[in-house]
Amino acid sequence: MLNSVDITSISKEHHAADVPKAFAAHELVRDRLFYTVPRALLDAVVRWATPAALDPGLLPLEQVLGDVCDGHDAQIGFWNGRPVGYPNLNAAPTMTKIAAALPANWQQDPAWQHLAWMKNSATMADIDKLTSWNDCAARGYCGWLVTNLQFVREHDEFFMTWRETIRLRASMPYNDQRAQWVANELKPCLDSYLALCGRWQLAGLAGPYLPLPLGPQLPVTDLSLMPLAALAGGTLLYLPNTHPLPDRATLRKMIDDALARHRAPDHLKEWSDLVDAAHTGKSTIARYGRLFQLQHHWRVLHRRHGPFLHGHRENVVKAMVAVLFLGVDDADDKKFESVRKDMTFISERLGGSDWYRRPSALDHF
């Protein structure tokens, strides 16, 4: 069975592209951070709120760049024209979808022999199940974080302090493998970044409001690959090959006891209680995942089309159904009501219905 790191790397290979040359010099793209809007959301806004709800001068740009990012499951935008990869906004593609994107003769190509296991349908199903579980937990934690005022304030303070350093490099530390983040004078920025990530138990940030939660590594094959935040924010478990496995209930209790969630720091206690083995409301985690998607799309859409969207709030809420509940008729009144309640919940957590219009870390880039 593959671990989550392997699955993520395969998913990233599935999709990554630079900005098309026709838009590379656009004022919102060149030297800028541009999170894309999914085509499904653009079309739903037009359908529910009329075309006048979107800036007609930006619509061709939005449509082309949104299409480049496809399902927004691996790439969600561009930074100075280069792809912003992010795995936690939408569900990862199934292994069947990834396999379909491989070259037609991949099974005969020696370069792809390490993926021979993709011919086994049972293995593919097991991986999809594991990926779905990891996705739900990670996206839920992201949603809890970006609707947590304390995290948002610390996050925004970091970007305010280091905005010039980050803007110059159009990337985040450690996400960019180029040499531009290795200079000695950058150490204060890197230290501040690692402190923020360690405090909130993150592997990193792909960009403003894009946290990268620490994920499970089963098994841990190389301690040097584990970020320091992982060792500080989790528990390393070891079970020798010679030791029999206990039954599932006993094993889960052993792991939960080892994690000692009741000793979580105060700023993480709310989330720690949600993921505690004794907590039965796991649907709350899934809801936070939906909140993460909702606040992201709402914030991005209003940053570029805010004046045009004025007066169309209810219809934009209806349009959100198209991206939050894939495969569901966006005229579904129950889903609309769920999104409407989600908007109210976000406003309550972030201290007002104007949360998306306030100064934010995105203003710097």
List key phrases describing it.
disordered N terminus; single chain; three-stranded antiparallel sheet; 365 residues; 5% strand; two-stranded antiparallel ribbon; globular
What does this structure look like?
- The chain has 365 residues and is mainly α.
- It has a domain at 4-146 and 292-364.
- The protein has 14 helices and five strands.
- Strands 1-2-3 form a three-stranded antiparallel sheet, with no helix packed on it. Strands 4-5 form a two-stranded antiparallel ribbon.
- A hairpin with a 2-residue loop joins strand 2 and strand 3.
- The chain is globular, with a radius of gyration of 21 Å.
Task: Summarize the SSE layout with pairings.
Blueprint: H1 4-14, E1 33-35, H2 39-49, H3 59-68, E2 75-79, E3 82-85, H4 95-100, H5 121-146, H6 149-161, H7 163-169, H8 187-199, E4 202-205, E5 211-213, H9 228-233, H10 248-259, H11 269-275, H12 283-309, H13 313-324, H14 333-349
Helix pairs in contact: 2-13, 5-12, 12-13, 12-14, 13-14
Number of helices: 14
* Proportion of beta-strand residues: 5-15%
Terminal Cα separation, in Å?
A: 40 Å
Q: How many β-strand runs? A: 5
Short description:
The protein is mostly helical and 365 residues long. The protein is 49% helix and 5% strand.
